[in-house]
Each structure stands twice: as structure tokens, then as C-alpha cells.
Amino acid sequence: MSNLDKRATDELHARTDKHLQVLKDQIWEELEQELFSEDPLIRSRVKKLKKKNYAISLIITVAAGLLIALSLQTDTGTAFVKEIKEIFVPEKQIIQNIEGTDEETEVQLNEGKDSEYIIYVDETRYELTNGKNSDVISTIIPLPEKYPEVTMEIRQVADEKPEDLVNTIEAALKKDFPELREVEEVTEPVIGFNLHGAAGNEAESKIVNAYVISNGQEGSFVITQYYFLEAAEGHGARFHRMLETFKIVK
Amino acid sequence: MNIDGWYKQILAGDKDAFRHLYEAYAEYAIRTASAITRNREMAKDAVQETFIRVYRQIDSYNQSSPFEPWFYRILTNECMRLLKKNSFYSKFEHPDLENEPSIAEESFDSLSDLYTVIQSLDDAHRIPLILKYLKGFTEKEIAEILELNHNTAKSRLFKGRQRLKDQLFPTERRLNNSE
Asked: How far apart are CA A79 and CA A85, in angstroms?
């Protein structure tokens, strides 16, 4: 081990030594309550604390809903939707971090199936194809055959709420991705449920990253990204940034 | 006893077996989470959530593979999730030091705080170095933990270490560049 390596090891140990035992005891105490307490009220405490973090976004959603409802009382629905669409500029620049480097990219406004949502697409690399049941964003230049597919599919399920639909999606994805992570609630790039899985640790191993989100009514949008391990910080990062611009307009 | 011995007991909900696993892995989990998040409370939450996931999802651990990469994958994902969620605060807690001229100009002798230099790197290079130096993980294990291709992990470790040297030995860098 070189002098630099030894110093790095020593300093990392020294700087992470503080309060170690206190933290260890505190964490165990909370684990004991969360996992082994016979009192269900105590066991649900951690979950309640986590839900508190989502309170702000929930308030914003409710406020936005009220604003739309109030506006619809004075304008016709169609005119309002048109106004909303006009708010979105046809083209804008975003900065995205690709493989550790900030990159300035021009993205173009695209409409989803039946104009139910908008999304900004990096049209130098990808194209959005409106399909009968779903829309698919794929690479303009096809990838060599040895690589798995690289796509982002956006599909609406009008009659099933995310909390009901997510289990069906999870079961379906587990067939190809047995090591699918536990469903996670996320607030980025969209607010909803996230399912993520890798079919191996090789450069070309398939990755799935799916989101199940509310369509603002009684249904859901399912957004499924497919890429491969080596492309996680390329196509994966670009899909993430594109999805941040996803907005429901109807 | 190790994970092979505890596995079935934890699967059956045995608290004692889970406590043994906690005693075996908590210390380095806390150290790693503290270094990655640079925040005591965030590290505490990350470690706590990791052990909860281990307890509840122990059945998804493949016993034929080593336990630590699986465990640290959950831990680093949790740290990164919390960092991302609280990015507004973490920016203020640790400003970007990479381009800070006062650090670049300091000599090796006066700059005793190598930890600060490691922490000034971007996450793509900082986290692999923390895993290598703090826990002694190999390139292959780091690739598995961070879900990276082996060559990507190798290159990040190399570049990260190179940046440490550049920060610590600016004179040497200038001499090499002028050659």
C-alpha cells in the first residue's frame, strides 16, 4: 500500500470514528422498536415520519387541483387546456450530467397520445412514436444488435390507481428481473412508485426502471425505461432528465 | 457464526440472529454512510433503513454470492437516495472544494486533511474511493455495489486517485505538465 493509500485509509477511519458507539446504540434501539415491538403503533412510527416528507408535494397537488377547478368554472375546458399547452415553450435548453460531465442539451416539446401529457425530448438522439396503446421514446439511430433495447414507454391505464396497479406491474417485471428491488415511493423525477431491476452485472445486462404515477384522475401512467448496465449513466441519465419534464395536461 | 449461520434464523424472524448480524456489520455501515452523506443524521437514517430492508428482504439475498456487496449495495443506494432528496441542504453543508484555489495551492505538509480533499470530489469518484479506502473493497466488489461495469469502476478509482494526487501534489503536477 502506497503512502497516499495508507493516509486515505487512516484519515477516513479517523474522521468517521466520532460518536460511533452512540449512533450504533441509537440505531439498534430504533430497529428494535420498528421490527420487533409488539405495539403496532410504535412499529408504524417510522412509516409515518417518512410520509411526512411527502406532505408538501401533496399540498401543492391539492392546491393545483383547486386552481384548475376554479379556472374551469369561468373558461371552457378546451380553452383552458390550450392555455396550459401554450405555457410550455416549444424548445428549451437543459443541463444534464452525463457520465460525470455537465452537458447542455436542447430539448423539444412533444405531445403524448391524445395530447394527455407533454414531455421534452432530446430530438438529436431520440424520437417519440405515438402508438395505439402507448407512446415509445427510442434512439433515432438503432443500436448494434448485441445491445439490449433502449426505450422509454409511456402508457396510460385509465381505470386503475397507482397503488392498485403497482403490484401487477411488479409481478410482471419480476418474470424477467427476479432481483427486482422492493417498490419504492419517489418524488423524483416524478411523484409515484419506482421499480428498478438489473438482469445481471455484465456491461450488457438489461436494466428496467419503471414508474407508476397518478394520471390526476382515477387512473395511472406507467413509464417503463429499458436500457443496459453500461448505458445507465448515458441513456439512463438522459431518460431521467427527460422524464423530469413530463407534465399531465388533461 | 456468519451470515450463512444467521440466514435461516433471520428468515424465521429471530431477533438474536439479527442482532448478531447488526453487531457484525453496523460499525462499518455507519462509517461508510457518514463518509458518503457527510451528515450524521442522514447516515443514521441510511443505516437504519438498510438494516430494515435486510431484515425484510433477506429472502432476496442469494446465498451463493458474498453478503457484503449485496449489503453495501442497499446501503449506498439508500445514502444516495437521501443525498438526492436533501441535495438543497447538503450543498450548504459541504461546499464544492474541488475548484477552491486555496486548497490546490497548499503543500502536502500543510494540507493534513486528506479527508476534505476526498470529500471535494464529485460523487462518481468520491464514493468508489470511500468504498476502497474505508472498507477495502476490490474493484470488482465496488462495481457490483455501485452497479457499474468493472472497467467503469476501475477507471473511476484510477481517476479519483489521480485527482487526489493532483490536489495534494500540485507542484509535481505542474512539473509533469510542463515536461
From this structure: 10
Range of the domain at A10: 3-53
Q: Is A34 on the interface with B (CB under 8 A)?
A: yes
- Regarding whether A98 and A47 lie in a shared domain, the answer is no
Average pLDDT, chain B: 82
Contact by Cβ (8 Å): A138, A126:
yes
What's the total number of domains in chain A?
2
* Closest CA–CA distance from residue B58 to any residue of chain A (Å): 12
Task: State the smallest CA–CA distance between residue B49 and chain A in angstroms.
Answer: 9
- Residue A212: inside a domain, yes or no? yes
Q: Is A19 on the interface with B (CB under 8 A)?
A: yes
Considering the domain architecture, whether residues A96 and A148 belong to the same structural domain is answered as yes
Contact across the interface for B165 and A4, Cβ inside 8 Å: yes
Which residues partner with A186 through β-bridges?
Answer: A192
Intervals of chain A under pLDDT 70: 1, 39-90, 96-102, 115, 250
Across the interface, whether the CB atoms of B148 and A5 are under 8 A apart is answered no
Q: What is the DSSP letter of A160?
A: S
Q: Report the sign of the C-alpha dihedral through residues A136, A139, A144, A148, in that order.
A: negative
The nearest CA of chain A is from the CA of B50 a distance in Å of: 10
Asked if A107 and A224 sit in the same domain, the reply is yes
Position B60 scores a pLDDT of: 86
Residues A147 and A232 in one domain: yes
Q: Does A143 lie in the same domain as A216?
A: yes
Residues B143, A28: C-beta atoms closer than 8 Å = no
